[in-house]
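FIELD: query
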Amino acid sequence: MMDAKRRLWLNREICRAAFSGGGIYLTFEEVTKLVLAFRDERDWKQFHNPKDLALSLSLEAAELLEVFQWSGDDLEVLEKRERTVEELADVAIYCIYLADALNTSLSDAIKHKLDKNATNYPARKAKGTSKKYSEL
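FIELD: result
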């Protein structure tokens, strides 16, 4: 197991590499490590319990939805794309925090849910329809 000093150094190196620009593409696991490193460097984990994280996630999702409020027929709101992406990132960050608080990884949770959805929504029945699985 890695000692705390080594882990902090590694987290800083990961963050430095990721935020140095140059079109770096990160894996989902690398992004997760960055998000958790950001949290840990600020000692915020102590405030992260599932209830408060779920509330925060809901609030961030509402901020994302607010971008589209009163947009009428404009379904993409392109002039607010930057804000939309920022709010989407906030939602994703809270998803990572919540998964960590629940002692699971978000990628594992997504994979499990996709497997379940594949059973409920087989492509041959669900393709091109918005019906619920119980209606297929």
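FIELD: remark
The first helix runs from residue 4 to 18.
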